[in-house]
Amino acid sequence: MVIKKILIPTELDELSTIVTGFAVDLAEQMNISEIVLLNLIIPAPSHAFLASQNAFAPNVNMDERFNAVLLENHQKLAGEEAERFTNEKVEIKPFVRFNESRTNLNKYMQEFEADLVVCGSRDEHSFLQILFGSDTEKMVRKVDYPMIILQDKRDTAEIKSILVAIDINEENQNNLSEIISFAGSVNARMQLLHVITDDSQSSDQAIKKLRKIAIENMVENYDINVVSNNNLEDGIRSFARKYNPDMIAVLSQGKGKIHKLIFGSSTEEIIRETDRPVFVSRIS
């Protein structure tokens, strides 16, 4: 995977400004010269329908006038945001589109020929509420491209260490290559982590399997980490707190324990209050 262009879905608010600043820093590190700043707005009839629960239906002329003013205002704000962050190395190109959904980005990734989504999540609680809650959940499930999700402000986008939680018993490790490629592009060391939650395998067996996965995927800059904990979430959380990686990376689909952790009932418990960016790579 070669990342040549970043797309930022923006709501033109404070968090979006933080995300844009992070993306510009990241683009400079990765020698990316163009970022698409995309503001998706729901047209007036949808707003009226949602607010009135179908009790109010504006006439066409009112609808058109409202949408015209809405579009003009958002284009102005998006242009100002793009101008603020554009520099000699990275150009920010603003676009505003009417769309019924803010989470289905695939057609825009294709339209703008972008390779990576960088976005913010407004949930301030647990790690996976941040990652897979509300609109973020819908986006992760729908978008077929790698994503970086931010919760909070970061002083720098410099990424030197990436924690990658791996289920060694998961048959499908496809798209681990996306994480490997990204790590290489920012010269970050990958911390491959497996959490042993039962007595079905020893630490030596887990290390051997992790090393095999690393070799098969041609990982070069990495460490192998195996910890024992009867709770998968606690194992990942404890490791993250102890070693403080700059980013956490996950594969968002599969059938193993990591997949069940991400999409299962225990998602609210993992890595509370993290402020690390999260790289999400979908398993093909």
What does the model show?
With 284 residues, this protein is of the alpha/beta class. The protein has two domains: 116 residues, Rossmann fold (3-Layer(aba) Sandwich); 121 residues, Rossmann fold (3-Layer(aba) Sandwich). The chain is 40% helix and 21% strand. It has ten helices and ten strands. Helix 7 links the parallel strand 6 and strand 7.
How do the helices and strands line up, and which of them pair or pack?
Blueprint: E1 5-9, H1 14-29, E2 34-41, H2 44-52, H3 60-85, E3 91-98, H4 106-111, E4 116-120, H5 127-132, H6 134-142, E5 147-150, E6 161-165, H7 176-185, E7 189-196, H8 203-216, E8 222-228, H9 232-243, E9 247-251, H10 257-263, E10 278-281
CATH 4th-level superfamily of the largest domain? HUPs
Uncertain parts: 254-258, 260-273
Q: How far apart lie the N and C ends?
A: 13 Å
Number of strands: 10
The portion of residues assigned to helices is 40-55%
**CA gyration radius, whole angstroms:** 20 Å
Query: Would you list the SSEs in sequence order as H and E?
Result: EHEHHEHEHHEEHEHEHEHE
Structural class: alpha/beta
The level-1 CATH class of the largest domain: Alpha Beta
Overall pLDDT score: 80
Strand order of the main beta sheet, please? Answer: 3-2-1-4-5-10-9-6-7-8
CATH topology of the largest domain: Rossmann fold
Task: Identify the CATH architecture of the largest domain.
Answer: 3-Layer(aba) Sandwich
Largest sheet: 10 strands, mixed
Shape: elongated
